[in-house]
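cache lookup: miss for this entity combination. No prior model stored, computing from scratch. Input as submitted by user K.M.:
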Amino acid sequence: MNTTLYVAARRPLTYSEKLLEINWGFLLLITIIACAGFAMLYSIAGSSFSPWAGAQILRFIIGLGILVVVALVDIRVWMGLAYPAYAIALLLLVAVESVGHVGMGAQRWIALGPLQIQPSEMMKITLVLALARYLHGSTVEDISKPLKLIVPLAMIAIPAALVLHQPNLGTATILVLDGCSLLFLAGLSWWWILPTVGGVAAAVPVVWQFLHDYQKQRVLTFLHPQDDALGAGWNITQAKIAIGSGGFAGKGFLEGTQSRLNFLPEKQTDFIVTAFAEEFGFLGTVGLLVLFGTVIFYGIRIAMASRSQFGRLVAMGVTLNFFFYIMINGLMVMGLIPVVGIPMPLVSYGGSAMLTVMFGFGLLMSVHVHRQVEIPQRSSGII
Amino acid sequence: MPLFDRKDKSRYATFSRRTLLAAGGMTGVFAVLAGRLYQLQILDFDEFMTQAEDNRINERLITPARGRIIDRFGVELANDRRNYRVLLVPEQAADGAKASIQAVARLLPIGEHQQEKILHDVAENKPFAPVVVAENLSWDDFSRINLHLPYLSGIIPDVGETRAYPFGEEFAHVLGYVASVSADDMKNDNDPLLSLPGFRIGKRGIEKAFDEQIRGAPGISRVEVNAHGRVIRELSREAATPGKDIYLTIDRELQHFVSERLGTESAACVVMDTETGDVLALESSPGFDPNLFNVGISSAEWHELTTNDHSPLMNKALSGAYPPGSTFKTAVAAAAVDAGIAVPGYTVFCSGSLTLGNHDFHCWKRGGHGTLDLRGGIKNSCDVFFYETARRMGIDKIEAAAHALGLGAKTGIELPGERSGSIPGRQWKLHRYGVPWQQGETLVTAIGQGYVLATPLQLCTMTARIASGKAVSPRLVHSIGAQRQPIAPAAPLPFSADALAAVRDGMNATANEPGGTAYAWRITEPGFEMAGKTGTAQVRVITREERAHGVAKNESLPWKLRDHALYIAFAPVENPRYACAIIVEHGAVAAHPQVQMTRDILLFAQKRDVAHRTTAYPSTSADNRATGRG
């Protein structure tokens, strides 16, 4: 390990030093992925920057700014903000139940002046922070104690239940996956993990009873898309046609017929990868997966290099959150799981998701910049 | 690592292990995604590519131009004319479809009802699909729309093609007409063109009989469409094959002349070339305007056509079967000569009636004709002469002669709806009524009454055969495209030359000798004289009681009960070339003014020299070339 750097870290870094510490290669990597998104938004709009590509580029640039700012903030400050931020997000989640706007058939955001805040997106970040802070304070042995475990489980379950009630199955699933994976990484005993997984599997039929009709419909449609080839099954069928017809090398940029001729539903948001797969084929899409994989690889490396449990957990939380987006969206558009409203991070059109992802990467980068900072187990961060 | 406290060291170790496990899990998920991509994009590529192309490409039919119908001298009898119309593309109407339609309605007469119909069409179709607002506009109306176009949002002036019959009523029965495709039409015809909106097919006449050839074959335009069916661009185009032109044997001038001469009478007239069987004119009056059916006939017009007692929709020349009356005596005369009955010196005494069993058969002339030979029998159209001759000869020979002259069976003319008429005989009656033939019926048959029925076309064919001595058959179509229709050389008739000469001589006497029943309307110009035979066909039965009190005069009867007036003729008397048959329904007397028009018609045909004039048919050397218009 580089001692000079370590020694340097013993004293607080100046902002210019921190700027140099930011992994600019990582930023280049996510910019390349975002560019793939811009290209597709341009293509599906019929070779036009409006309505999507232009707005998306602007958002990404704003996102990069947020990323850098978040990265420069000391990791202990984020630790100190973890619980209050979680509390605010939770309050906002409750608030959307009463004043929320209905979009896509669900109550999901509230308007604060010109800003549209999606508390469920906010919760993805604050849950990671809050759990990381809680778990930072416990030893491996503590975590598996029932009384100690109740707190983080409640921290996961309460927002997840609220989001599910909106209803937003996709985000609720991601919250649960984020939270549980942090418990897993922090060292939750296999004696808890294995029975729980078994229990969940057994509970599926019970959960089915509580799903909304549209959610049930999605599952049924997924299982038998041909029964409703022109209705709800249309999405799945057309998405598969788009991907499959891309072939090995794709139809070529701006040559996708499925996406450009409007056969794809929600092509600019959840189904953008199908348009990409159509125009760039197997080669391009696997290339995109490799880029995603590289981002995740960087995330894991940053987590492993952090000297604080909080930093490690935040880094992995952010990375896993990113991964779960990719996994659910990828499996969904390729027809392997039912359709749930989860976008492809960095690529899909959409403001909230972009900000969440970039904020998350900001935290990841903060962990990287402050990797040498040691935080005592009893610390409650800097506020 | 001294830098970590002990507890954190164990946490780090656990974290590292678990992270490695998570990384493994993530790698697994990525492998699944890549595998799925491989399956969809590499293994199932062909299937999905096909489906994507099916999504994207729509094949649209291009309507072929309908072939023209042309007369023997090159006059177009049916063609396509420009159809000036106004279309509305609803999505381009800035203030809505309704406002645009009303704007057009201020410039063109479009009724409230019509406007509702257009709005209904708009609602039924996609917003980008053009809807017809008005069509078949005059140039003035069309110009007015074009002038106001800047203020008519969503309105598109368009020039389409529509079938036109320049001579209207004159050719209604020969050409027929085109009209929208009905469900019945689709049953036996799976040509995809039929399902095109606005497509027209032949419904009657030549248009129907040769629809397949005139129609042509569709072209295909392959267009790229989006998910809503909107056309994005054309990918390829295969031009339509235009329908073939049909060349008729008809002479438009003669047809026009005949049509004028028949006037408004319920009548039919056929003029034929006695050598070739070419039908030079075929008219049934009254007619109707075939253009009406193309643009859409109003219910009032349709009602008028279907309820008119002169049956304008019926082609009487071949769908009307009438008792031929005395014109049939020509056939009986020919049979009598060959049967060895009407030998030179053969005479019959006419006292005004002939008694057979307990029934009196009356001559049309109450006082009788006295002694007549065959020539006199024909010339005077003496009923008793033919009663007696037929009584001696028997029905079988009359039946055979009638068939030989083309009666009792369809002539095979290329028009739909032809009737075969009927020629009775022993077998025929037994088969039809299950009772044997009565001798009295032979007598009635001999004067063209009773069971005998013939169409004007058959009567004209019979006349042509008598005149030429050959078994000519009528035909209307000379060529389809450049392809000549085959024509079999006419066989000689099974009559002796003496028999035919005797009949022709009798017909000559009828028309050209004083006392002949058609002498009044003979052709006097030397070299153009015609020979003919009159006929009146009784429509009602005259009872014995009525005959005793005096037969009611036709003039006192309601129109529907009056006798039909008929006349058959050929000209010139020497080396005949033209045959003509005419019937005036309920014309009452053989000398009906319209019947007398035969003189004008045959004179016109001869002077125009229709049979010898140079025709304008496409040359046969072009037979192997692609036919039809360019």
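stored under new cache key. The radius of gyration of chain A is 21 Å.
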